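Project outcomes to date are best conveyed with an example. Our students and postdoctoral researchers have been running inverse folding experiments weekly, and each run begins with a structure described purely in tokens. The record below, which covers 713 residues, was selected by the lab manager from last quarter's runs and is presented without edits.
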């Protein structure tokens, strides 16, 4: 279908007719127009679901999301079809299955016919590629056996065909066309997909997250920890297991593990990708700046720890990340599924975070978050990582046409604050929430707000800094304490050596853990983990979103979002500080007066603040349309996404603040914005990081002097 109209002005008749043709295509199956489809406008980005008339309005008002030229969310095939330039008839059309394989695994055409140096895994993969050239039937130019099978398998997945119906369809096709070259059953089709490296293992789990039914527990029918049945119960009779269509019991919970070893081996079967995996050693510019994980201390520490590992530049360095999401489009359904992703850091910085090189390793089912029991589900992944570190696996390198012993190591994890607690074992709630400060964390439980706040950042200032003796601007006390010592990995490893983990939703937490530890993380089973200088990272964009929520909610005095409210003022009264901001009761206690804070804005100033954000014009693709989240009538900003918060904090927030607020309030907020903007640059030096570390302490101390205590959560 021609799509030139998508580039025309949205008020033109051609564009409007094109939108109508798009909607006709999306509803081409004869579905009623009232059925909801994914809206591909710039605002919804194929996330929100609406009826036909609403989607039409969005596309005319906002246009299509950038780059959405193949309507894969609305029924258009993602597999590209190419047409020869020499002919215009249908016989010249053929499927680009080799291009599809190239997209997934890189340029593999060079390897046809090469057998020297290949191991069995490589030979099986290349035999599959050779099969892509087989005709579907004699004389067929449009499809090959592999492309037709993939298309058919895609239809099965999209429309929920059962395995039996899929096998019946294959048999019907072979009966109608005896010369057709396709698999005869679903299992043979799945075997072909498995050879592409797209297979996974199903591992049954206890519904209370106590254990996985694997190894010696593979044939057990009840959890040995909590006694819960492995299978779902029949709704009519709780004592019997509910069977599926084939009479087999249905597991109550199933983990899906995508084998990482074979997928890492696949990376080396493409010569271009295999060469890129040595980029960090052969082509990286070593000028002392930090612009790739290979420039960091964690990477260099791993090389010093194992010289044999460092000598082989093809050994893989990995990062791990996990977070929960709701797989259903209806957000009123409470469900939390947890994918565990792996990133390959050997690749250049412009490749390592591309979707095709981010590997889904585990899919942990819901409906609840696994919490600290996530270690139960990480077991198969950790076992493969131990194997990759201690022995390695034989791998064929297509760029050098040789086989080598590939090893791999996990550098760190990257998560938000809640997932940080799940993976590290340190509870990020309560009075000892900071792992860096550990037992010396400065925290305070507020009586009226029922929140724990983290303050006293003066301990990180130089000992001769005048703010250490300033009592009036802070909590009424001097602070001459030294910075808390940072706890090192070997010390944690030794501390938790004899602690016994207790997993399962119905099991009580063990009391054998010191301080704020809730478990001994499974990552300590990796021989090198406790020696890593940086095991767990916090995702900076989550932090930026939380900070911007606090700043905007407090400055605009948005209900529920503001950190300056009556209870916050009563907290000041209980602590006996900042008497000018403490609430005052008048009319014999019938009314409470709150003094205006230095950061409070008038209604006119709030309108100016929102007006600046509302009228801002942004470069295409830098962020979504932020004006949609600004409500001038209510003088509030809400509904923005994490990336929008990232952009607003870096570039937009300082503009209205500078012109509205007084300098002693505006300057710390502008410095905070500048801190994150410099921290998130594409490259940075160690000297700059040292300066930023000193600067953020001063900024936090300045914020302590301005905002109420609830702001410091």
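After processing, the design step wrote out the following sequence:
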């Amino acid at each position: 279908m021609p799509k030139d109209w998508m580039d025309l002005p949205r008020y033109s008749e051609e564009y409007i007719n094109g939108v109508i043709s798009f909607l006709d295509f999306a509803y081409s199956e004869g579905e009623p127009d009232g059925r909801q489809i994914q809206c591909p406008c710039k605002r919804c980005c194929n996330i929100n679901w609406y009826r036909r008339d609403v989607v039409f309005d969005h596309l005319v008002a906002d246009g299509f999301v950038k780059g959405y030229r193949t309507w894969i969310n609305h029924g258009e095939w993602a597999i590209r079809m190419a047409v020869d330039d020499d002919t215009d008839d249908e016989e010249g059309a053929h499927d680009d299955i080799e291009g599809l394989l190239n997209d997934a695994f890189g340029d593999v055409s060079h390897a046809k016919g090469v057998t020297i140096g290949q191991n069995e895994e490589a030979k099986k993969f290349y035999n599959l590629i050779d099969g892509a050239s087989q005709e579907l039937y004699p004389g067929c130019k449009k499809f090959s056996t592999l492309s037709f099978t993939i298309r058919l398998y895609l239809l099965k997945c999209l429309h929920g065909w059962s395995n039996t119906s899929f096998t019946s369809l294959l048999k019907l096709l072979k009966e109608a066309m005896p010369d057709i070259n396709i698999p005869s059953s679903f299992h043979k089709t799945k075997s072909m997909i498995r050879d592409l490296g797209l297979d996974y293992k199903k591992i049954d789990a206890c519904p209370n997250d106590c254990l996985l039914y694997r190894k010696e527990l593979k044939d057990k029918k009840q959890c040995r920890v909590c006694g819960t049945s492995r299978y779902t119960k029949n709704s009519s009779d709780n004592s019997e297991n509910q069977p599926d269509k084939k009479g087999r019991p249905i597991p109550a919970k199933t983990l899906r593990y995508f084998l990482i070893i074979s997928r890492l081996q696949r990376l080396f079967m493409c010569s271009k990708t295999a060469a890129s995996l040595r980029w960090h050693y052969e082509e990286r510019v070593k000028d002392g700046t930090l612009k790739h994980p290979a420039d960091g201390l964690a990477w260099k520490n791993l090389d010093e720890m194992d010289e044999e590992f460092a000598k082989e530049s093809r050994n893989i360095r990995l990062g791990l990340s996990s977070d929960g999401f709701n797989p259903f489009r209806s957000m009123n359904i409470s469900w939390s599924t947890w994918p565990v992703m792996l990133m390959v850091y050997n690749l250049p910085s412009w490749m390592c975070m591309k979707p095709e090189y981010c590997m889904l390793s585990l899919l942990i089912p819901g409906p609840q978050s696994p919490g600290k029991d996530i270690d139960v589900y990480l077991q198969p992944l950790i076992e493969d990582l131990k194997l990759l570190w201690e022995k390695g696996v034989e791998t064929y390198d297509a760029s050098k046409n040789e086989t080598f012993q590939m090893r791999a190591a996990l550098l760190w994890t990257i998560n938000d604050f809640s997932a940080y607690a799940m993976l590290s074992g340190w509870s990020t709630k309560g009075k000892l929430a900071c792992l860096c400060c550990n037992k010396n964390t400065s925290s305070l439980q507020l009586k009226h707000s029922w929140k724990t706040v983290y303050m006293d950042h003066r301990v990180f200032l130089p000992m001769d800094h005048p703010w250490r003796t300033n009592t009036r601007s802070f909590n009424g006390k001097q602070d001459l304490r030294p910075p808390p010592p940072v706890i090192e990995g070997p010390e944690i490893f030794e501390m938790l050596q004899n602690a016994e983990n207790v997993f399962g939703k119905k099991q009580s937490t063990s009391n054998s853990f010191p301080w704020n530890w809730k478990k001994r993380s499974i990552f300590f089973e990796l021989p090198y983990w406790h020696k890593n200088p940086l095991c767990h990272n916090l995702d900076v964009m989550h932090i930026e979103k939380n900070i911007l929520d606090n700043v905007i909610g407090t400055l605009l005095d948005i209900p529920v979002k503001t950190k300056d409210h009556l209870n916050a003022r009563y907290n000041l009264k209980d602590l006996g500080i900042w008497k000018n901001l403490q609430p005052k009761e008048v009319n014999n206690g019938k009314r409470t007066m709150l003094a205006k804070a230095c950061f409070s804005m008038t209604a006119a100033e709030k309108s100016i603040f929102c007006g600046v954000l509302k009228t801002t014009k942004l470069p295409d693709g830098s962020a979504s349309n932020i004006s949609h989240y600004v409500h001038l009538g209510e003088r509030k900003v809400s509904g923005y996404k994490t990336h929008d918060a990232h952009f607003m904090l870096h570039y937009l927030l300082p503009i209205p603040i500078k012109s509205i607020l007084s300098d002693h309030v505006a300057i710390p907020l502008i410095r905070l914005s500048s801190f994150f903007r410099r921290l998130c640059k594409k490259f940075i030096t160690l000297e700059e990081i040292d300066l930023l570390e000193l600067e953020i302490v001063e900024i936090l101390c300045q914020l302590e002097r301005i905002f109420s205590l609830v702001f410091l959560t």
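The radius of gyration is 30 Å. The chain has four domains: 4-74, 81-195, 266-441+484-538, 540-712. The training component of this project remains on track.
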